Amino acid sequence: MSGVRSRPATGGEPVAPWTRRFVWAFLAVFLIAGVFGIEAWPLTGWRLFADARTARQASFEAFTVDAAGGERPIPFGELPVRFRGNVQVLKGYQDLSPSRQAAVCSAWADAVRARGVDVREVRIYRVQVDVSKRVGKRAAPPRRTLRWSCAGGAVTAAPAAPAGGAAPGGPGG
């Protein structure tokens, strides 16, 4: 059957053999990505909506601190393109070496300074939200705990929080 073009049932032009091979190859790769959990766009292992989420969700937030001590969240979406994936860097920040942590903080501070903002320090908070807790009709405020502080090229890890956790609120809360 090599070299023979099959006619579609609609009576249109025949489909080229290379097109059929491409579609079958793409579908095979798509299926393999799903079975083995490979996350490489446009292929997906469907993890985004397939992972179970618990009532307690933890994440990290980065803030800059000005000379007056005021905090502002780092606007990753407004920084140059090379910083747009840095929310993912926050997730793995604790696994970086101290020198890499300092380099990351310096890069973030420099990028925010380039926008004309005074930056004296970068602070990284662990944010824990318990979606099962409510205050009236609203969600309870998240708990924020300072994890790292970066200034002058040095990174300082914050002391561990007491067993009860940090006080609710914190910056912006």
Q: Give the helices and strands as they follow along the chain.
A: HHEEHHEEEEE
Unreliable stretches, pLDDT < 50, 5 or more residues? 163-173
Q: Share of helix among residues? A: 25-40%
Shape descriptor: elongated
Profile the largest sheet.
Answer: 5 strands, antiparallel
Radius of gyration: 24 Å
Number of individual domains: 2
Could you give the order of strands across the largest sheet?
2-1-3-6-7
Class inferred from helices and paired strands: alpha+beta
What separation lies between the terminal Cα atoms?
A: 68 Å
Note the total helix count. 4
DSSP strand count: 7
The proportion of residues in beta strands is 15-25%
Average pLDDT, to the nearest integer?
A: 83
What does this 3D model show about the protein?
Strands 2-1-3-6-7 form a five-stranded antiparallel beta sheet. A two-stranded antiparallel sheet has the order 4-5. The chain is built from four helices and seven strands. The protein is elongated, with a radius of gyration of 24 Å. The chain has helices spanning 17-36, 47-50, 86-91, 98-113, and strands spanning 56-65, 71-73, 121-130, 134-135, 138-139, 143-151, 154-157. 27% of the residues lie in helices and 23% in strands. By secondary structure, it is an alpha+beta fold. The chain has two domains: 17-49; 53-157, no CATH class.
Feature tags:
two-stranded antiparallel sheet, 173 residues, single chain, five-stranded antiparallel sheet, 2 domains, 4 helices, alpha+beta, elongated
Task: Kindly summarize this structure in a few lines.
The chain is of the alpha+beta class and 173 residues long. It is built from four helices and seven strands; from the N terminus they run H-H-E-E-H-H-E-E-E-E-E.
